[in-house]
Give the backbone structure.
Amino acid sequence: MLSAWVYQKGLPFTGVLMDSGYATKTVMLHREQMQKTYSCPLKTNRRVDDSAGTTPYQRVDSLTWTQAQRKQGKLIKIRGFPKDHKVK
């Protein structure tokens, strides 16, 4: 649907807000391929890595955050995404 708005109607926009239900590998990678910024929460049980591969994947709700990371975000790799693909 978003592709139709972009390619057929030429709808000008730069960002997309999505619900956690749309935070899937296919949808997120498609938004990036379209060169659109997106923001969506991840479900608490998603497995992620914030250690650059030094520790196993862990649940999002078990990550530790510094004060700076709470304000600015944290680069993570989501399990199942391409090897060097990180999101903030």
Q: What stands out?
A: The mean pLDDT is 87. The radius of gyration is 15 Å. Residues 1-41 form one domain.
